[in-house]
Write a structure and sequence with these properties.
CATH topology of the domain at 50-149 in chain B: Nucleotidyltransferase, domain 5
Order of helices and strands of chain B: HEEEEEHEHEE
Oligomer: heterodimer
Structural class of chain B: alpha/beta
Shape of chain A: elongated
Largest sheet of chain B: 5 strands, mixed
Largest interface: A-B, 46 and 52 residues
Radius of gyration of chain B: 26 Å
Strand content of chain B: 15-25%
Structural class of chain A: alpha/beta
CATH architecture of the domain at 50-149 in chain B: 2-Layer Sandwich
Strand order of the largest sheet of chain B: 5-4-3-6-7
Order of helices and strands of chain A: HEEEEHEEEHHE
Distance between the termini of chain A: 88 Å
Largest sheet of chain A: 5 strands, mixed
Number of strands of chain A: 8
Strand order of the largest sheet of chain A: 4-3-2-7-8
């Protein structure tokens, strides 16, 4: 034994495990919840006046108990809903049967055309939740795409990548989430 | 004073740090085992629907959950039931549930509570609508439909 092998110093081991400990403490975010966020309207007051809305400003979306979709009295497939909703909310050709566009002055955005359109969503008690979410998803997608288009046009970045709270606010005002949910009906007789 | 004049005669032995890592590792495992985030045992079958336009729920401490789905135990039938905390509940219990959720939060946070609806995709809308009506009455307007993530189709 001419040479003794030197011991490995274990002093840094503690630091390493501390580092591991803090790393796991910081990164462990337990499965985050994902979903579609909505705001419910307050409960109707008694003898509340129902505001009159012109028929051209309403997009009626009905879902029946067998998950079929009826939009403006026409049966369409779920894949078409987004385009229909987008056309309804923008009225690009200025058609008479699509919603009026109102010029509004919005801070940070100037004068923009804000649609008066409201999407009225009505479902049966027997509609499946899956279908309901798909419809909500398509409508949200339509709004999100419009917001993104406007955001790219005005600020050069997508809506989801906007960081300035004022800009986000302005875009949200220009293209509001105009989805109204009617009290459901029990047409199909399901409980 | 003689007892203090031993300087140099004997080196103070260094503290052995070899076991330090074991202690820290024990800490690590202790925390790993103990941190089970307060989660309820699901009494209902729950496969949320998929969606593309989803948002992350911020601030988990401000979220209260309502679960709706078919009971796991076949004995209880296959009608969709509501689960609050760890037990089945009826539609009438929701307002009380919202109240208790509010009471358990800070005064400042009370208005920012989001109710996450974790609903199985096979549920009929009737139950969900009843729950939503109760939430409206209880004043819990911010809701979130929990979904799974689906990749966007490129077209």
């Amino acid at each position: 034994m001419s040479k003794r092998s030197a011991d490995i110093s274990t002093a840094s081991m503690a630091d390493i495990s501390f580092l591991l400990l803090t790393f796991f403490l910081l990164t462990s975010s337990i499965n985050t919840d994902l979903g579609i966020t909505r705001k419910l309207p307050p409960p109707p007051e008694e003898n509340q006046e129902i505001p009159e809305i012109k028929t051209r400003n309403v997009l009626q979306v009905l879902v029946n108990r067998s998950d079929k979709l009826l939009v403006q009295s026409k049966q369409i497939d779920i894949s078409q809903l987004k385009e229909v909703a987008k056309e309804f909310l923008t009225n690009p050709a200025n058609k008479q049967d699509l919603p009026e566009m109102e010029e509004k002055n919005i801070k940070n955005l100037g004068t923009v055309k804000v649609s008066k359109g409201i999407i009225s969503l009505k479902n049966d008690r027997g509609t499946s939740y899956d279908m309901y979410i798909q419809v909500q998803n398509e409508l949200t997608a339509a709004i999100n795409e419009l917001r993104s288009e406007l955001s790219v046009q005005r600020y050069g970045v997508k809506f989801s990548e906007l960081t300035n709270a004022d800009y986000i606010d302005a875009i949200s005002k220009a293209i509001p989430v105009a989805i109204s949910e009617a009290e459901p009906e029990n047409i199909g007789g399901t409980q | 004073m003689a007892r203090f004049k031993k300087k140099g005669s004997k080196a103070v032995p260094g503290i052995n740090t070899g076991s330090m890592s074991d202690i820290i590792f024990m800490f690590l495992f202790f925390f790993m085992v103990i941190t089970t985030i307060r989660e309820v045992t699901l009494q209902v079958k729950l496969i949320p629907p998929q969606a593309t336009e989803i948002q992350k729920l911020e601030k988990k401490s401000l979220v209260s959950y309502i679960y709706i789905g078919q009971p796991r135990k076949a004995v209880l039938g296959n009608e969709s039931r509501i689960q609050l905390n760890n037990a089945f509940a009826s539609v009438g219990d929701i307002q009380a549930f919202v109240q208790s959720e509010r009471a358990s939060r800070n005064e400042a946070d009370k208005n920012f509570i989001t109710t996450a609806l974790k609903v199985d995709m096979d549920t009929r809308m009737g139950v969900v609508t009843d729950v939503k009506q109760e939430l409206r009455k209880a004043g819990a307007f911010k809701i979130n439909y929990s979904t799974r993530k689906k990749d966007k189709k490129q077209d």
